[in-house]
Amino acid sequence: MAVRPAVSLGDFSTLFALAGRSTRLRSERLLNDFGLHVGQQFFMRCLWEQDGSTVGDLARRVRVEAPTATQAVKRMEAAGMVRRTPDEQDARRSRVWLTPLGRRTWPLVTAALAELERDLLAPFTQSEREQFMSLLLRLYETSLPADGPGADGTGTRPDATGGSRAD
What we know:
Layout: H1 12-32, H2 40-49, E1 53-54, H3 55-62, H4 66-78, E2 82-86, E3 94-98, H5 100-121, H6 126-143, E4 156-158, E5 164-166
Antiparallel strand pairs: 1-3, 2-3, 4-5
Helix pairs in contact: 1-5, 2-3, 2-5, 3-4
């Protein structure tokens, strides 16, 4: 049995950080089995939905700075999951494509992540899961920077399915 941390109900930030850390560790182990690092699943999903995206497009969709996206793409390229090609209209940009390995791996990753989600949410009823997800989305929206709708200023935010919607 896991040891419970010495926190009280009023220790929101501590409990949230602890839950996030343990969830991240489990995700890390799971993704490592596929040769991925935590965070790269977001880029994989974007490419699955829109292969051939530019690194800048990926950065905006994943809500990270361009250098962070560039590093993630370089790591995924080294792992054989993606390949980059010059953009046909602007040689300064590159487009990122899933490789055959990336295409084979992504469905396995989504299945493993879905199983992890089922495990994590198993103690909750279906109604509690829906409420919890709704509350997390509201928390996320509340936590966005005050100077814009999102870190990238696009006016989009994730919807309940993991996609995005315009504000």
